[in-house]
Structures are given as C-alpha cells and as structure tokens.
Amino acid sequence: MAVVVPFKGLRYNQNTVKNLADVVTPPYDVIDTAAQDRYYKRHPHNVIRLEYGKTGPFDNEAHNRYTRAAAELSAWLENNVLVSESGPALYFYEQEFTLEGERKIRSGFICGVRLEPYAKGVILPHEETMPKHKADRLKLMRACRANFSPIFGLFTDPKMNVDSALREAVKESSPDVSFTDETGEIHQMWVVTDPGVICEVQQVMADKRIFIADGHHRYETALNYKREREAAGGDGSGAEILSVTGSCCTGPDGSCCSSGKEPAYNYVMMTLVNLYDPGLVALPTHRLVRGVTGLDKKRLVEQLKESFDVEKYPLAKDRNNFQEFLRLLAKKGQVCHHDGLNSAATETKGTVPHRHVFGLYTGEDQLYLLSLSNEKALYRMMPQDKSPAWQGLDVSVLHTLIIEKYLGICGELRAKAEHITYTREEEGALAAVDTGQYQLAFFLNPTLVEEVTAVAAGGEKMPQKSTFFYPKLITGLVINQL
Predict the structure, then answer these.
(1) What are the angstrom distances between the C-alpha of 367 and each of 198, 363, 424, 433, 441?
(2) How far apart (Å, rounded) are the C-alpha atoms in residues 151 and 133?
(3) CB of 371 closer than 8 Å to CB of 307
(4) Greatest CA span in the chain, whole angstroms?
(5) Which of 143, 183, 279, 456 is close enough to 106 for a disulfide, judged by CB 3.0 to 4.6 Å?
(6) pLDDT digit string (tens) for 38-88?
(7) How many Å apart are CA 34 and CA 353, to the nearest integer?
(8) How far apart are CA 280 and CA 293, in angstroms?
(9) 79-88 burial: b if 16+ Cβ within 10 Å, else e
(10) What pTM value is reported for the model?
(11) 270 phi and psi, to 5 degrees?
C-alpha cells in the first residue's frame, strides 16, 4: 500500500532568517492579490516568491513568474538562505490553534509518499479538480523541480502507533522549528533522523491507504510531472536521486519497506495526519453564485418549495442575528435516524446520518433555511450512478437539487469556475451579495471526515471544495527538491 520515505528537506537557515513567521505563508490557493503583496513586502526571502510569484505586464515564455521562482530558488541555495538537511528525515509537526474559543493541537508528519495512480486505490482523492489550476502548478514544478508546499493526507491509525513512535523519538528534544504566525497559530516541528523510528513509521504505514484532504491539484500535477520526466528518460546525471532510507526494515508482508534509490520525482511531499487525531477539524466551504441570466429570486424561492421546507429568516440591519442563524443551520443539520443515509461501507469510523439543510441569502436582508422535505426519497432524486455515500453529501444535494436543477450551473459550466466562487467568509458572503458582486449565497454545514473517507474509499469524488480542513498547512517549513 502506501510507501512513505524520509527525504533531505530544504529548510530556512535560521542563522539568516531569525523569525520564520516572516517567511512562511498559507497555501497559494487561499492567497488573494492583497495578501500576495503583503507577503512580498514582509521579507525579501518570503516563500511567496517561490510558491506564488507575481505576474508582470511584460511576462513571456522566457521571463515569467515560474522562471523568476527558479532563479530565486537557485540564489537562495547559493547564498545559504535555504540549506539541506544533513540526512534523510521525517518531520514531526504540530499546529496549535484556537477554534470557537477552544485551544486545539493537530499533529502530523511531513514525508515523501510514492506517487500512485488513483486506480491503484493507494492514494484516494475525494474532490474534482480544475484543469487551469493544474496547468499553473505544472509550469512551476517544471521550472523549479521542487515541492514548496505539502499535500495534506489522512490515514487511519486508531491505536495511534505512528504518533506514539514520533512523540517518543522527540520527547526529550526541543523543537527544531518553533514560531507563532500572523493568525496566532503556534507551529512546532522536530527533525527525526533515527533509522529505527523511521522504519517503525514505515511499517505502520505499509498497509495504509492515504486520503487526500487538501492538495488534489498538486497531487495530480506531481503525477503528470512524473510521467513527463519518465517520458524524457529521467535525469541521466543522477543528480536528482532520492536516498530512500539509511537502512532496510521488513514490512508486514515480509518485504523491505524501502531500500536502494529511486528518482525523487517518484515521490511527492505530504503532511500526513491520523483520522483519529483529536485536533483534526473540518469546516464548511460556502458558495457564492453570479452570472445566472434572468434569475428571478422570488421565483427561485417558490421553486425550492418543491423539494425543501423553506423558512424565512429576516436578517437584522446590524447583522446581530446572523450567528444565531448559522447556529440554527448547524442544529437542524444534526444527526437523524432515517434509513439508508450514508450506508456505504467504509474502513474508517463509520458514516453518520444527518439532515440536509442549507442557508440561502438573496439580498435585501432576507435569509432562508432550506430543509430537504423528504429525506427518505433523497436517493430517488439523486444521480443513480452514484453511491449512497455520495448521494448523501450536503454538497451533492446542494449542487444536484438546487444549483444544477434551478440555476442551470452543470458540469461544464461549473468546471469553468465562472459562476460559482467558494468562500469561508460568512459575513463577507453577505456583503458580496449586498454589493451586487454576487446574486446568491448558499451556506452549508461542514462535511464530516467520515463522509470524505467513505466517498474516497468507494472510488468517487465529491464536488469541488466540499471540505475545508482547518487550519491550512503552512507553506515554507520544508521544501522537497525533485
């Protein structure tokens, strides 16, 4: 199953960069133009220049954000801004954060994971991807031959064996990296080079599958890059060979977990988090809709009554009852006990039935709660080529029974990303409709982690942006050269 390896990561030289908070960023896909500019100004060696460089009016094939990133990377290596680990390592990583007043810690480890086509069932996706985003990432990978940010992967380890092994290895050590970022999150990371500990982790992971939580575009890009390199005959110089591990260990099937050497592009950098980690949190991603020709909002509300119980919820002028509305949305979406919902088998904790309830904002201070009228009839209304696990997702119900049925935004239109924008900003979604930038805002409850793994284990993909695992992984802690 999953092949996990240590690698010689590139890290910021802390003799040169005194405060790592100045040089790290969130993942590129949550950075807007204003944030990009802010990170550029924060530090001349901020990782934004590598991961998500600015475009210019005179960019061409020879000079562009990708070639500039490659030049910056080369210069930083030459000037020892970035330095290589002395030997292959796993990186034990903790993020401490606050959610709704409660302090949480999410733990994981950064490693190389052997790239496998989805069809093999080792690495499992759960979301659809967009071609234009993969094209952007592939250009960057071609130019820089590196992974700048890790893919976020989940695995199932109910006995917490991996966590125990890594914690035991670092229990008497101070973290190699420790800082507080701009949001108040505390990041701590330990470099683990002990071959025995690495082998123990590899043994546990040898029978695991990995579910991609975040980073589908980057994973599929890494697969495409691997195919390109193989088609070109690899690198004859041998300069890009990954030393898989310093010693050989025996896996559960009697085979060697990893030994010898392989091209580095056979692997991609991931941060792996146990599904049973107490700090694992999934939040909802809401939908903003625009560009629907001839949209009659009053008529839409009447149409929705065909399948939904529609409750009006006037929004106060000062918005002071909006959080109450969101709490009501969450309460109405809690566990229910009708038959058939989310009955797909899963290797995880098991799926949990819940009610399908959405919030709708049409502007002019008018909110609606939309509750599916007949939960038992859901599967007759949903695509019959999909599993019960997929059919029972809130995002599937929203897209199928509302966005596609009444707004006409179907597969091809959705893929163009012209009519739907995804947001975590709840108050901001209201403002976007009030200003006329968008026509409608749909609010969702979070997708359950059990639902994500059930759909992925069945070989299906959710609609795009079905999940938001909070907090995002930081970019800039470790870089993986290919």
Answers:
(1) 53, 8, 18, 12, 9
(2) 15
(3) no
(4) 68
(5) 279
(6) 999 999 999 999 999 999 999 999 999 999 999 999 999 999 999 999 999
(7) 41
(8) 40
(9) eebbbebeeb
(10) 0.81
(11) -135, 150
Question: Which parts of 215-336 fold into alpha helices (H)?
Answer: 216-231, 297-304, 322-332
Q: Name the token pair of 144.
A: 């820089």
Where does residue 472 fall: left (phi above 0), alpha (psi -120 to 50 degrees), or beta otherwise? beta
Q: Match 């950064």 to its residue by tokens.
A: 110
State the amino acid at position 267 in one-letter form.
Answer: Y
List the alpha helices (DSSP H) in 22-172. Answer: 33-42, 48-51, 65-78, 131-144, 161-170
Closest listed residue to residue 82, CA positions, set 2, 124, 36, 144? 144
Determine contact, residues 268/152, Cβ cutoff 8 Å.
no
State how far Cα 58 lies from the chain centre: 33
26: DSSP letter: S
Q: Cα(469)–Cα(95) distance, rounded to whole angstroms?
A: 13
Q: Which two tokens stand for residue 331?
A: 């309460």
Please give the structure tokens belonging to residue 314. 């006037």
Determine how β-strand 357-361 pairs with β-strand 440-443.
Answer: antiparallel
Q: Which of 270, 212, 271 is CA-nearest to residue 467?
A: 212
What are the start-end ranges of the H helices in 333-440?
378-381, 388-391, 394-398, 411-415, 426-434
| SS3 track for 66-135 | HHHHHHHHHHHHHCCCEEECCCCEEEEEEEEEEECCEEEEEEEEEEEEECCCHHHCCEECCECCCHHHHH
Nearest residue to 314 via CA among 370, 371, 368, 359: 368
Residue 361: in which H helix or E strand, if any?
strand 357-361
CA angle 221, 222, 225 (to 5 degrees): 85
Convert the pLDDT of each residue in 368-427 to its tens digit: 999 999 888 888 999 999 999 899 999 999 999 999 999 988 765 555 557 899 998 999
What angle (nearest 5°) sits at the alpha carbon of residue 480, between those of residues 478 and 482?
Answer: 170
pLDDT digits (tens, 9 = 90+) for 418-454: 789 999 899 999 999 999 999 999 999 998 888 887 8
For residue 168, give every residue at least 6 positions away whose Cβ sits within 8 Å of its Cβ, in sequence order, or none.
197
Write out the two tokens for 221. Answer: 């890009």
**What backbone torsions phi and psi does residue 58 show, to the nearest 5 degrees?**
-110, 20
Specify whether the CB–CB gap between 408 and 292 falls below 8 A.
yes
Burial of 4 (0-12, 13-18, 19+ CB in 10 A): buried
Distances (CA, A) of 93 to 126, 273, 424: 24, 10, 25
